[in-house]
Amino acid sequence: MTGHPGQLQAAAAAATGIGMLLLIRRYPGINHDSGLYLGQALHRLHPDIFGRDLFFAYGSQDSYTLLPELVARLHAWASLPAIFMAGSLLGLLAFAAAAWFWLGRWLPRGSAYWAWLAVLCLPSAYGTVRVFSYAEPFLTSRPWAEALSLFAFGWLVRNRVLLAGLCVLLAATLHPLQAIAGALFGWLWLVQQDRRWLHLAWLGLPILLLGFTGIRPFDGLYRAIDPAWHQDLSDFTPQLYLTLRTPQDWAALGFEIAMLALAVVYWRAQPRIASGFRAGLLAIAIGLGASLALADWLQLALPTALQLWRVQWVGQVLTNGAVGVLLYRDLSTRQWERASILALAAAMAASGFLWAWIPVLAVYAVWPWLSTHMSPGFRRALGMLAWVAQLGLLAAYIAEEWLPFRIAHFQLEWYAFDRRLLAYPLLALGLPLFGVWLWQTTPSRFVHLLLAGLALLLLAAGLWRWDARSPVARALEANASAPALFGTALPHHAQVFWAPPLYPAVWTTLTRADYFSPWQLAGSVFNRGTPREGRLRLERMRPVIEEDMYCQDRSVPAQERAHCRISEATLRHACAPGTPAPPDFLILPYRQAQAPLGHWQVKDPATGETAVEFWLYACPAIMADLDRHTPQ
Fold first, then answer.
1. Residue ranges covered by each domain of the chain
2. Element holding 563 (H helix, E strand)
3. How far is the CA of 11 from the CAs of 343, 446, 447, 613, in angstroms?
4. What is the distance between the alpha carbons of residues 4 and 452, in angstroms, rounded to a whole number?
5. To the nearest 5 percent, what fractions of the chain are helix, strand and coil?
């Protein structure tokens, strides 16, 4: 850190960006879609057990990705929780490196660094808000495919098309949907450099012809989804359809398009840069237009499964980069008032204010004309007003986050209040940019060394706080592959329902087939039988899920929650013989009247007291007990 000034600056810049990335995108454990990849790896390791699991019984999309196979092979040297944690961390670092590999060559140096910080620090949700985001902090094939796509973009701006194509092909082996989005953007960028690249579209002709064959998955190219299947997909996976998006989703898309358009205008004097943002706009138009026509209106099977709207992940990366670039332009030219207005519009868009950001961004767009018709005092007043609004939004955000933090007894282990605060755009991007401003405006070598030291501390804090698994998640993963966790070894053929079904606990700890969990329906678009069977199992377990949700509801009086149990009628509904067959075992966070086969406690790391206790019940034993106590 005491070497050449340029090396010191580069080290501090990298530590700042990666430190903020790790502090904002902390590891939740094998959660969200990461659980699906865990199940796919377990399916390869134990096909006799998981072949009966709902997620695999009718086929699975795991044949379209190499990641489960890689995880299964690595399991010979490490535990699955360790593999998933290491893979998640390396995926984030790969994404950060790939983003710089692209942006650092595509944009001028100063703009590139601010764009890179914005890509790493600003909200990354796209499509259906709060469901999908780029650079996810858990292990799926998406962050790796995204990183490879960004490396491809970096090779494109270096005019190394073959290497770019190789990166896209590697991305497709991990996650074809993310890779298709990246390939579309890259192709549109190339077309703007040389129109002869349009001829690459001829490669789509063989695919159109394969649609007339019985070869999977191309046989679904012209096959319409039947009405019952479409209803299941609309209920279980509404993110497939643009017509089911919420107003908040459309408002976020509108901000994305507006920012890309502003970036195109800003870089109009440098066509090579403008073409990238223009390619993002075109890719969004093509991807969403094709998805709307082929999936929502024509309801064709393969186009629905391809989810061409996922091109928005590239659009969101470009949008955040555009925010960083424009902030750099405004602050470099000492237009702090204009930069404040852009920051306010970005914060409003990220905070779910629907379309309220439009007039704010409109003021930003016409600022060059508007500023000539305002006095300096009025310009400063507008800038200060934008800051007051920003601070007001931040105060409202803190107040909203304080309630769940208080419910968690102010324990960061149960609710990462610090991460939630840092994720707010004003702090997420404002703090590192403040450090950059201090570095650039202070020539003192001592100050630079101090800032570099703070950047290293930031990186160390990011690594220290990155593991944000809840105590329950930690306990589950610490007991991975423990089918006798409850003191009773479960049979290989066992189907287990664990309430609440919000974590792949059955897969993680018991290594047994999960009877029903919402994420098992994620592949419904690939296999008709999965949603059909899933709906039947959901109806069987729905009363258990609803009663458990009531018992966990913090608005219910504490005394009532303390005595909550699953009713006998609901237990009978869940365990009675019929179609579909009931689960073999239930795991509930309640001591029922029926005799349990065993129990397992999770300790609160802060107090050492029992945080939650789960009880294992056998459905046949529950039915026998209910029948004994039912009047004849």
1. 472-628
2. none
3. 27, 16, 15, 47
4. 13
5. 65, 5, 30
Strand pairing partners for 602?
Answer: 612
8 A C-beta contact, residue 50 and residue 513? yes
Q: Which residue has the tokens 């390939």?
A: 183
DSSP 452-482: HHHHHHHHHHHHHH-B---HHHHHHHHTTT-
Helical ranges in 25-79 per DSSP H: 34-45, 47-50, 54-57, 67-74
428 in Cβ contact with 25 (< 8 Å): no
Pairing of strands 610-618, 585-588: antiparallel
CA gyration radius, the chain: 26
Question: What separation in angstroms does the CA of 107 have from each of 182, 307, 427?
Answer: 19, 30, 24
**For residues 484 and 543, what is the distance between their CA atoms, to the nearest angstrom?**
27
Query: How many C-beta atoms surround the C-beta of residue 61 within 10 A?
Result: 18
List residues bridging with 125 in a β-sheet: 133
Q: Could you give the angle at the alpha carbon of 86 between the alpha carbons of 83 and 90, nearest 5°?
A: 135
Please state, in angstroms and rounded to a whole number, the distance separating the CA atoms of residues 372 and 378: 11
Query: What is the residue whose two structure tokens read 């105060």?
Result: 395
The tokens of 501 are what?
């079904």
- Contact (Cβ atoms closer than 8 angstroms) between residue 91 and residue 150: no
Q: Give me the residues paired with residue 467 across strands.
A: 27
Kindly report, residue by residue over 404-442, the tens digit of the pLDDT.
888 777 888 778 888 999 999 999 999 999 999 899 888
CA distance 179 to 167: 9
Compute how many other C-beta atoms are within 10 angstroms of the C-beta atom of residue 4.
8
Locate 193 and state its tokens: 């450099």
Distance, in Å, from the CA atom of 544 to the CA atom of 571, rounded to the nearest integer, reads 7
Q: How many CB atoms lie within 10 A of CB 384?
A: 12
Q: Which two tokens stand for residue 259?
A: 């920012």
Q: Which residue has the tokens 């995108």?
A: 25
> Do β-strands 132-133 and 125-126 pair in parallel, antiparallel, or remain unpaired?
antiparallel
- Residues paired with 592 in a beta bridge: none
Inter-residue contact 343 to 390 (CB < 8 Å): yes
Counting every residue written for the chain, the total comes to: 632
Measured distance between the N- and C-terminal CA atoms of the chain, rounded to whole angstroms: 82
**Closest CA relative to residue 332, chosen from 126, 111, 507:** 111
**Two tokens at 270?**
């440098």
Q: Band the pLDDT of 1: cuts 50, 70, 90.
A: very low
Q: Are 315 and 280 in contact (CB under 8 A)?
A: yes
Say yes or no to pLDDT of 4 above 70: no
The stretches of 175-270 forming alpha helices (DSSP H) are 176-193, 204-210, 227-236, 247-266
Q: What CA–CA distance (Å, rounded) separates 246 from 29?
A: 28
Nearest to 218 by CA among 300, 310, 288: 300
CA distance 345 to 316: 15
Amino acid present at 558: A
pTM recorded for the entire structure: 0.94
Give per-residue pLDDT as tens, 102-125: 999 999 988 999 999 999 999 999
- Please say whether the dihedral angle defined by the alpha carbons of residues 585, 510, 493 and 548, taken in this order, is positive or negative: positive
DSSP string, 322-347: HHHHHHHHHHHTT-HHHHHHHHHHHH
For residues 616 and 598, the answer to whether their CB atoms sit within 8 Å is: yes
